[in-house]
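Assemble and predict.
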Amino acid sequence: MILINGKPNDSISAQDRGLHYGDGVFETIAVLNGQGLCWQRHIDRLVRGCERLGINCPPELLLQEESDRLCSNVGKGVLKLIVTRGTGGRGYQPAADSDTTRIISLYDWPDYPHDYQNEGVRSCFCEARLGHNPQLAEIKHLNRLEQVILQSELASHNVPEGIALDISGHVIEGVRSNIFTVTVDTLSTPDLSQCGIAGIIRQIILENAAELGMKISVGTVTKDDLFNADEIFFCNSIIGVWPVIQLEQKQLDVGHYTNELKKMLSAMGAIVTA
Amino acid sequence: MILINGKPNDSISAQDRGLHYGDGVFETIAVLNGQGLCWQRHIDRLVRGCERLGINCPPELLLQEESDRLCSNVGKGVLKLIVTRGTGGRGYQPAADSDTTRIISLYDWPDYPHDYQNEGVRSCFCEARLGHNPQLAEIKHLNRLEQVILQSELASHNVPEGIALDISGHVIEGVRSNIFTVTVDTLSTPDLSQCGIAGIIRQIILENAAELGMKISVGTVTKDDLFNADEIFFCNSIIGVWPVIQLEQKQLDVGHYTNELKKMLSAMGAIVTA
């Protein structure tokens, strides 16, 4: 089921700037018992992304109302909100008065094995690299070819999630998630000022980890930092928290702090746990 | 008039990966008296772009036949070919057997003043920068947010074309064109290994400029190189050649070599001249 500008529809204009230029932003939201988890945070990020790109974001109440129509009877699902700059303008030039397109669709909950959350996943470094572009960093925009290329690699590596490095060789994120390490009692995650998506779950963890007695570091993370870490985990709004139990040849345990963070996120209603 | 997978249509699936990820490539082709100029070069680049992204490019004959249907009675127009990876796959992961979407549309010839080609244009450096991503450099893919942001700047600068620098501050291209300088008898254009689109007209110039007695240099180009140049021009398949007669505070003449190159491209049938 898809609502396009509020009407059930399964197609969009072939002139939409989302298609021609990736000129838009999106959110992927876990839905549990009719409710979008971390709804306000997702909407706030969508609004910020639109502001950065100069797109007129549709009113929050409209997005809420249309999302409710799709989700009201949903036990567990994934809601995707796309907002594009619409069909106006000429070539790359946006129209002065942009006719924003909103595309709200509901997907089945993905069938990841439950034990990824509890028993962890194997992972590896991807060959493809994230380019540097401070102007577009952190935003969840529709220019996602890098992620498509990275994700295509994972099939050959046969791991459920891979680690994306930037063109300087620094660790940035998981292919479709953020990444954290724990070393002794310090929680670290890469700075995303050059590339990467600033995830909602990442943000909640950064705001709340101190309550679990952890020091917090956001900065440069190297491959060696990962090999020297006591714990590593991926997180996003759909997978929740996936501990890493093998990185290349290195074995790790599902760590104490990773479990505590997962419990905290679950108790806050931020993630769906198995 | 738009043909989508060969059928007249003005909408595409809301699940198309071109919309969700910018997962595709495109070409913009000048049409004169029913013929797409530099047709084979455009198709070859489309094929190469698809190869780089692992997209199954539609057969050339099919693209030719469908384009002919749109262009047969056209005196002067612009043909846009888009090929996306279609609707398959799950999240970023492409389907193993991709159902490519082809979108072929015809636009009016843009009404740029004729004297841009003959008398030149004013230009300036844009504030927004092109990120570095060697993996996607040169390809005419659908991730074009950088160009949208750059083009949005031009309205405030009130110039017909601007100059895009990369995050290192080097000159890369025009916002929707390639850029060349002439200094004494050396023709220079930026290396595009980190970012930028490798234009068809740029390539034809590089292959043929030696015949006009010019030395050719492809490498790093700085802002100072532009300020020290005797001639500067933009080029692409639609605008043809636009000499730069003012760059920031610097005045330039429409140069001898620029005119010779423009005549050569026109004689080859590569560009439409006023």
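Chain A has a mean pLDDT of 96.
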